[in-house]
Amino acid sequence: xxxxxxxxxxxxxxxxxxxxxxxxxxxxxxxxxxxxxxxxxxxxxxxxxxxxxxxxxxxxxxxxxxxxxxxxxxxxxxxxxxxxxxxxxxxxxxxxxxxxxxxxxxxxxxxxxxxxxxxxxxxxxxxxxxxxxxxxxxxxxxxxxxxxxxxxxxxxxxxxxxxxxxxxxxxxxxxxxxxxxxxxxxxxxxxxxxxxxxxxxxxxxxxxxxxxxxxxxxxxxxxxxxxxxxxxxxxxxxxxxxxxxxxxxxxxxxxxxxxxxxxxxxxxxxxxxxxxxxxxxxxxxxxxxxxxxxxxxxxxxxxxxxxxxxxxxxxxxxxxxxxxxxxxxxxxxxxxxxxxxxxxxxxxxxxxxxxxxxxxxxxxxxxxxxxxxxxxxxxxxxxxxxxxxxxxxxxxxxxxxxxxxxxxxxxxxxxxxxxxxxxxxxxxxxxxxxxxxxxxxxxxxxxxxxxxxxxxxxxxxxxxxxxxxxxxxxxxxxxxxxxxxxxxxxxxxxxxxxxxxxxxxxxxxxxxxxxxxxxxxxxxxxxxxxxxxxxxxxxxxxxxxxxxxxxxxxxxxxxxxxxxxxxxxxxxxxxxxxxxxxxxxxxxxxxxxxxxx
Length: 597
Prior knowledge:
Layout: H1 2-37, E1 47-51, E2 57-58, E3 69-70, E4 75-76, E5 80-81, H2 82-94, E6 98-104, H3 115-129, E7 134-139, E8 142-143, H4 145-151, E9 156-159, E10 164-165, H5 178-184, E11 187-192, H6 201-204, H7 210-235, H8 239-247, H9 254-259, E12 265-266, H10 269-280, E13 290-292, H11 293-297, E14 310-317, H12 332-342, E15 346-355, E16 357-359, H13 360-376, E17 379-388, H14 390-393, E18 400-403, E19 408-410, E20 415-420, H15 422-428, E21 454-455, H16 461-486, H17 490-496, E22 501-503, H18 504-509, E23 515-516, H19 519-530, E24 536-540, H20 546-554, H21 558-567, H22 571-582, E25 585-589
Parallel strand pairs: 1-6, 1-13, 2-5, 6-7, 7-9, 8-10, 9-12, 14-15, 14-24, 15-17, 17-18, 17-19, 18-23, 20-21
Antiparallel strand pairs: 3-4, 11-20, 16-25, 19-22, 20-25
């Protein structure tokens, strides 16, 4: 027995020591990656900036090699930052060593970015073309509609002979849960304000309401027209002809795309490389000098000038909840805005909002700090793909609101969603509950015996009335915040509110948006309002340093990494399920997830 314990102890000690050794080695490796990632990159003459959009496109990329480090593969799964792409294109405009841009979109995922982000990149590429440098595009596997819209700005677009190009129109599909909930004995208790606040329809209907369909088709139609007009302008094909080809599904393969003038050639990748050699004046069979966006971000910028004056770009990305991080908005954002307000070297603030909204009270915390900041210095709101409901709430008090033509915004409304599982709990699981309390409403709303956001009973009439009053008061507060920020009357705001979702062009007509444009437009307005000529951009909130990220990866994010590796493509389904659970309670949130293709 003694030897058994001795052996067991030795084994445990060996595992612990081995674990520490592996951790130590891992830290050394990662420290090496971190130290090497910010070294200046030397750009050679006759180079080509290669833009590969093969990861998810986010507003703010991280220069921290640990922000998306995958300990399973010991490599970085970094997202692509819109800010990095725009900065690279701007720098390449005047860089004599960069001959042109190669849009290598072979690995581009269909959901790599929203239409507003794509529009910002496309507009920047259009600006780049005025320098006389080339832009060419190639795809080995075929274009999604959004990807083709982006690459249609190129001087020349090429496809692999076996690749496809399907233009089918823009749309999506929504799932409704009423019958499913009915079968398992759960009922959605919905309390809302506004005829367009359709955030909860999927729980008590089997299809879209007329109001929901009306607002959806308005912004989808506007986006689609924008896409068609952009392709028409660059490819010299009328919108009418494009619609005819689409309705007939006439374009299916690369040869069809070339026949109808949607692309300039059907070639293989080695032939594409030959074209790039000629364009960049590289001799035949010599290696191309392709520079990635991540490398080019570390290349010296000849136009950069240090300035004490700063314009802070504060990123508000993700749903509004209780946690502040790179992909969600929490109360911590209010602290970041407060610090920027009190920093005398920050002359103006650009609040970059890309959010469907979320918790109403957290939205109000952040609104308060934006209001105080706008009283102290210029605050410009820049809207990304979605800045709706709570996302609009936090932006409405800015001095100027800038949105891309394809931004989805509005959705000014509040709803309450509560699930009652009385039948599920009592009839199907055989559980019973018995309430007690010191006062009449001590057991408000019932209990949660399943450890899920499903209560043991429905609201009583009194409870429902109380919650409805809370929702009504929240809506009134929301509308009054917008009225104050936009210099409108409460009646005027109510007319365009009621939870209705708007595209930015209609939102501008309704007074909810001031200027159509992207992040760079917002920064230019901030500069003018601050009255500064020289300035530098600081991005906030500050990102974690590499070693903080290591600890986070080894603790909080470990579960996520395991789930992603196990579930693969089904992880997004799991994520949506978790998101549905978070939709409960009182929310200032866009009606549904917008997933257009």
